[in-house]
Specification:
The protein is about 35% helix and about 25% strand. It contains seven helices and twelve strands. Helix 3 crosses helix 7 and helix 4 (about 145-155) crosses helix 5. It is globular, with a radius of gyration of 19 Å.
């Protein structure tokens, strides 16, 4: 069994990868101060054969994970990274290190299907990435997520908007709170729909992942499917490939 971790800006997700299956997926809020406690909460009962991690949480958080593993006598974690090419998938960035590793993982997961794919990872930031059926990553967009957009407006204006329901999603808001939140949702939906339309693909794979994905899914066409642990699916592909060729971590 391999233990997979997706260490994000505000959340940590984990799952056990065994026999080609993501088992016992879990998630918890996580910041630098709580890394050890969260790992205690998410860790499998038995020591894994290997630990693979996608992390955008920064060097201090990564060091805390390494120290936690060492304190248990567990294998040193392997931090995946964005590369010019992995598993036959070619990165659009001239400098792959500038592509967030979480974005690279969802691209790898989607590329495994052999279809043109559009992947939306809706978290603190909302990213949209496109990859062709033959494994060419075309690039993507980075936008503020709904909560981040709301917080930014609260900080930079006189608004004090709180979370409001968006189901059903009104066309316009009838007060400041819904105007801000609904506006942020519409902005993301508009970007997603515009990118898809301009790509012109027929029946592409359309994937939603990330903490705010459930907020967007009801307002998108039904071919958008929710994959809560898509980053981990990409990590799993690399972990399996490393059993054969050891140059992915």
């Amino acid at each position: 069994m391999k233990w997979l971790l997706d260490l994000g800006n505000t959340r940590c997700k984990s799952a056990q990868w065994t026999a080609g299956y993501l088992a016992q997926p879990q998630a918890a809020d996580c910041d630098l101060a709580s890394v050890g406690r969260v790992l205690d909460q998410l860790a499998p009962a038995a020591m894994p054969l290997a630990i693979w991690i996608s992390s955008v949480a920064g060097e201090a958080a990564n060091a805390a994970v390494q120290a936690w593993c060492a304190s248990r006598g567990w294998p040193a974690p392997r931090f995946v990274r964005s590369q010019a090419e992995s598993l036959g998938v070619r990165c659009a960035y001239a400098d792959p290190s500038r592509l967030g590793v979480d974005r690279w993982m969802v691209v790898l997961a989607a590329a495994a299907t052999g279809r043109n794919a559009l992947i939306v990872d809706a978290g603190t930031a909302c990213t949209i990435d496109a990859v062709t059926a033959d494994g060419s990553h075309l690039g993507g967009l980075i936008l503020p997520g709904v909560a981040l957009a709301r917080a930014s407006l609260n900080q930079r204006t006189q608004f004090q908007a709180d979370v409001v329901t968006t189901a059903p999603l009104p066309i316009v808001g009838d007060d400041t709170n819904p105007a801000v939140t609904v506006g942020a949702v519409h902005a993301l939906l508009g970007a997603i729909e515009r990118v898809r339309r301009q790509l012109g693909w027929v029946q592409p794979l359309c994937v939603l992942t990330g903490g705010e994905a459930p907020l967007l899914q009801p307002h998108l066409p039904p071919d958008w499917t929710l994959h809560p642990h898509y980053v981990l699916e990409g990590v799993a592909r690399l972990a399996d490939a490393a059993d054969v060729q050891d140059d992915f971590g």
